[in-house]
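agent: user wants the full assembly modeled, not chains individually. Plan: 1) parse entity lines 2) check alphabet per entity 3) run joint structure prediction 4) return tokens. Steps 1-2 passed, two entities, 805 residues total. Proceeding.
--- entities ---
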Amino acid sequence: MVTELGHFALILAFLVAIFQTIVPLVGAQKRWSGWMAVAEPAASAQFLLTAFSFAALTYAFVTSDFSLRLVTLNSHSAKPLIYKISGTWGNHEGSMLLWVLIVAFFGAMAAWFGGGLPPTLRARVLGVQAAIGVAFFAFIIFTSNPFLRLAVPPFDGQDLNPLLQDPGLALHPPFLYMGYVGLSMAFSFAVAALLEGRVDAAWGRWVRPWTLAAWVFLTIGIALGSWWAYYELGWGGFWFWDPVENASFMPWLLAAALLHSAIVVEKRESLKSWTILLAILAFGFSLIGTFIVRSGLLTSVHAFANDPERGVFILMILGFFMGGALVLFAARANVMEAKGVFGVVSRESALIANNVLLAVSCFVVFIGTMWPLVAEMLFDRKLSVGPPFFNMAFTPFMVVLGLILPVGAMMPWKRARIGKALWPLRYIFVLAVVIAGLVWAMQTGRSLIGPLGAFLGAWLVMGAAADLKFRIGSSSLGRLLRLPRADWGKAVAHAGLGVTMLGVAGLTSWQQEDIRVAQVDQPFEVGGYTLTLTDVQEVEGPNYLSTMGFIKLEQNGQMIAQLRPEKRIYPVAQMPTTEAGIDYNLGRDVYVVIGDPQQGGGWAVRTYIKPLTNWIWIGSGLMAFGGLLSLSDRRFRVAAGNRKTAATPVPAE
Amino acid sequence: MMRCLIIGAAILLASAALALDPSEMLDDPQLEARARALDHDIRCVVCQSEALASSNAEWAREARGIIRERILAGDSDAEVRAFFVERYGEFVLMTPPGTGSNLILWAAGPLMLLLAGGIAFVYLRGRERPESATDTGLSAEETKRLKEILKE
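--- prediction returned ---
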């Protein structure tokens, strides 16, 4: 019964979305205020109906209603409750429902908090947002309906993919989708502004909080996924350049670029056409990501719906929205005339450099991801593009970005002098170089990545501190606390980038690996640590069987930790997983995995010493936190849609 | 990684091996280090974009064995790679060789950077000396209207 109501609500939401697309857009064109005004209640209704539909599906998963095809395929009665809930979006149909729920949610947020927007712009934003909803409602109802029943319900389900039965991964998709779909707001604002024929400083200010929110969610989602891969996949990598990881990384790069270019639109009324284009492309890459995951074109661990029919449907959605928006973009090029005047050396140009680097690095990831396909179709070459390519082709962009970031952040608007921006950073630069030199001298291998990462980490973190100090000038430190939160957000996020770079460099250049047969109670040494396998036991979990090793970790005779690496088998899904035993520490992780029993006695044990690894996620957390700080800045709250506060004048040098 | 397990799980449930097993390793640590580097350069052909090093598939295990055999037989790293390319095509290499049409792939990033940098520079020069109408901060329409008002 609840299921049927959920199904019905989904169809109703589809109809409401169609209504919300047509009526406000026509109303805005004809200036009929009544037609425009229906957008808000429609957005609320669409959201509530979708939320009810999603709740109905969740209910079916929680109560293990195996008459539902989807529940049978992806759940099991013995599964812990949290994974019954997360199982709702651990499959293609359910995750699409979550996707469209978030589209509706963002639309409703714009309706509720967009009171200050001009009525025509608001009506258009909500209309475009609803159009995106229509496309995905249709996709769900016609190709991926989650509410289909089975004629003969089985006694129990086939269980969720055990890899997905993990707290980190339970939360990874919702955050990622909040990010992906959050970019639809930037897209809706861009298209609405083009329809409106007006792109100005106020637009830059309205679109920024949405982009920032989407970027924060993407950051958290990607970091969660990467952390999960680190502890779950059994050898402690954090990034694999897998097509689907790239699919989430490309929108992140473009969202970061959009975030910065929208500042130029807001403060300086320049870079408008580029910013609009970025807003369109960022959402385009979200759709491409969806397409890559769902079409099975590029298969990977994430691809849960390898169905050409669905792929073609998403390709049509992509073609319609990108094609339509780009045609509109070309037709309205005249409304995006730049106004601000600035020198070749200025904050504007530093932000343009940021955009060039981020956009080109996104392009590199894109071409690397698509190249196997292109090479096969055009050149009849079957080849692979693996991590070595991406590491080589992508990393230089990030190094240059890190190098110029602190300088650009110090530059004033309009006209700057390089020397003047560099001067306050002189000690920091020297100190960062000294740190890199020390690291170079201390390390045993001759890797360049390690010292470079140490330099960039120190340079970015101290550069962010210098930026804050520069803001308060010569006044007392107490003024620090009274700085706008946006300034703090900027500093924290930039420092976070440095911290992540340091972590990545530490892990890639100084990791130690040891693979051996460990005999019970015979200690062995790895990188200054003594490990002893004391016992191996068979343990029964709620829905799995586990082989658990007990490993004592000691250093200089001091007991540090008791590690419990596991090898699990999920009998229902017929799948093994590994659970690494990890001793977390800010300096290094000791990462232990247990393997098979050996013929001559003993167990295969893999031990890794992973220096600085946690900083990768601490840095990501700082980036997200910096974004949230900026988001909570007074200017965004007060001016969320106040046209009077258009271009904030910026004093010249 | 686990990707291959997803495919191979049903068949190989009993031998849920970790990627590289101690029994596969060479005794000489230097040769083994070379072999492990090669494990990362050569992909598992039955997996999805996954290197030999992390794969659990049976095929990958055999391929790791072959790498070690070739090394013991005195092959250089390049010869081991060539051995695999000969049998499985360039598909087997994790890093696409920069030959022929692959030059597009390798050059795409730098070329795009030059192009984008060039456009950005031209734009910046334009911003420095903008057309007279816009440096007042007024649009053409606004300027026209201003002229009308001043005329009156």
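agent: reporting back. Strands of chain A lie at 512-518, 524-526, 529-540, 545-555, 558-563, 566-570, 575-579, 581-583, 588-597, 603-611. The longest strand of chain A covers residues 529-540.
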